[in-house]
Design goal:
The complex is a heterodimer of chains A (124) and B (172).
Chain A: H1 6-29, H2 59-91, H3 94-117
Helix pairs in contact in A: 2-3
Chain B: H1 2-26, H2 30-50, H3 54-78, H4 91-113, H5 118-121, H6 131-140, H7 145-171
Classes of the chains: A mainly alpha (124), B mainly alpha (172).
Chain lengths: 124, 172
């Protein structure tokens, strides 16, 4: 059972190693000739305006909420997707659970349309 | 060998969860606390794996680490710009918090002591199949079909509520 998680462990270890090795190697080997332009926040980019640590607009809150709601919707899609084939082949109720999921998504789509129509997704 | 390695990893996750949870409540920088909470939530996901609840572990990572934590960070960014906050704790709050924590501990210990499956889970536990398929079969059969669809209504309510609240704040 735990052996099934070995790929995830490998992925995590390689991700950390990749970041750590790259960062430390460039730090150790890379030549350091700093200039004022190089040290700016976005080198060859837009000049920063003001401090980054300021209050963000409350409108981001709706975006985050929408994200979580559809995140949870996706979570429910996983078990559905896993059993869909068995349902369709063995029990012949593929259409039934397809409609079930369409109802599930449809109800949430109503909310999405509501948020959209209310102007929750526009920035003004 | 298998058992010792498993125990070792389990204690690793347990330590990770407890240490980062302590950091959440003791660190003064609220952003650091939020990132410590990320470690805590990952640790809990690891503990779910040990409880053979693989779907729950994945959900924990997707929803809590991926979603709720982002919302908390957004909450930090949307409130005061002061990152370093000195939180003043009264004696009464300390007593109340301690009392509630103690009650929760007693409750959890009672649950642990009265759970018969607990002994099985400390065994190898290979007889337990992945849970995602079984959850899928349960929520799509007649048995839990209605709760499954009600979940979407619940999410709809949350969605409309979020849209309404954000809208109101903008007009003010």
């Amino acid at each position: 059972m735990l052996i099934d998680y070995l790929p995830i462990v490998f992925l995590g270890v390689f991700a950390v190693l990749f970041a750590a090795v790259n960062l430390s190697l460039t730090h150790l080997l890379g030549p350091k000739k700093p200039t004022r332009v190089k040290l700016s926040v976005y080198e060859s980019g837009v000049q920063p305006v003001g401090d980054a640590r300021q209050r963000f607009s409350i409108r981001f809150d709706l975006i985050a909420m929408l994200f979580i709601i559809f995140d949870i919707e996706v979570v429910f899609l996983y078990p559905w997707a896993v059993v869909f084939k068995t349902f369709a082949e063995n029990e012949g109720s593929g259409l039934f659970i397809l409609i079930e999921m369409l109802v599930f998504i449809g109800i949430l789509l109503l909310g999405y349309i509501y948020a959209w129509r209310k102007g929750g997704l526009t920035w003004d | 060998m298998e058992f010792t390695l498993k125990t070792f990893i389990f204690y690793g996750f347990a330590l990770m969860t407890i240490a980062s949870a302590l950091a959440v409540v003791t660190v003064r920088n609220i952003v650091h606390a939020a990132f410590a909470l990320m470690v805590t939530l990952f640790g809990v996901a690891g503990l779910y794996v040990f409880l053979q609840a693989d779907f729950l572990a994945a959900t924990q990572v997707i929803v809590y680490v991926g979603g709720i934590l982002v919302l908390i960070l957004f909450g930090v960014m949307m409130t005061s710009g002061r990152l370093e906050m000195r939180i003043h704790i009264e004696r009464g709050q300390l007593l109340l918090g301690g009392g509630i924590s103690l009650a929760l501990l007693m409750l959890l210990l009672t649950v642990i002591a009265n759970t018969p499956i607990w002994k099985n889970l400390t065994d190898d536990g290979t007889q337990l199949a992945p849970t995602t398929e079984r959850i899928g079969q349960l929520i799509l059969n007649e048995k839990f079909l209605l709760p499954f669809e009600v979940v979407s209504v619940l999410l709809l309510v949350a969605l409309i509520g979020a849209a309404l609240i954000s809208r109101k704040e903008v007009r003010d």
